[in-house]
Amino acid sequence: MKYLLILLILALCGCTTTVPIKQKFPLVPEQLLTSCKPLKLMDKDSSIVDATKVVVTNYTEYYQCTVLVDTWQQWYREQKLIFEELR
After folding, report:
1. Domains of the chain, residue spans
2. Cα(4)–Cα(10) distance, rounded to whole angstroms?
């Protein structure tokens, strides 16, 4: 009976040990890691039509980059909340 009690105590003590689990922050999607394209520059002697084209192109690039950055920030905030809830 003594041995059964000792065996039961050892079994219960063995079950109480915890294994540390290291959580990793999720990897970033590749689409969000692309950098923004550089904006175009105007030549010194460009016409008003060429200048307008450059301005329109730059505005388009800017707004596309803004969408990328906003998406990145939203993804990061969501993943951080999920990661902290798991702790």
Report:
1. 23-86
2. 10
